[in-house]
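In response to the reviewer comment on reproducibility (Comment 2.3), we provide here a single inverse folding case reported in full, input and output, so that an independent group could reproduce the run without further information from us. The structure tokens appear first.
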């Protein structure tokens, strides 16, 4: 599954850059073509971001990447219960 996500990530970002370039440098007399290229670039960017975050999540779960720093908030519930008692 991670290899499929990595492949999807590369293809999506390639589409983002390719269609983004076409949308930016396209002929202004062809607004339909520029709009379609911009939409495809946006879809490629969104899929690329989603696939990247899925890869990060997998890397953290598998131990390949360090876990995110998170504060221990267990004391907050205890303090809240003591104040409202």
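Designed residues, in position order:
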């Amino acid at each position: 599954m991670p290899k499929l996500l990595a492949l999807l990530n590369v293809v999506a970002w390639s589409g983002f850059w390719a269609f983004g370039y076409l949308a930016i440098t396209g002929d202004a007399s062809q607004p339909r073509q520029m709009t379609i290229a911009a939409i495809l670039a946006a879809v490629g960017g969104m899929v690329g971001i989603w696939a990247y975050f899925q890869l990060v999540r997998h890397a953290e779960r598998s131990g390949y990447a360090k876990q995110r720093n998170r504060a221990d908030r267990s004391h907050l519930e205890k303090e809240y219960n003591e104040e409202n008692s």
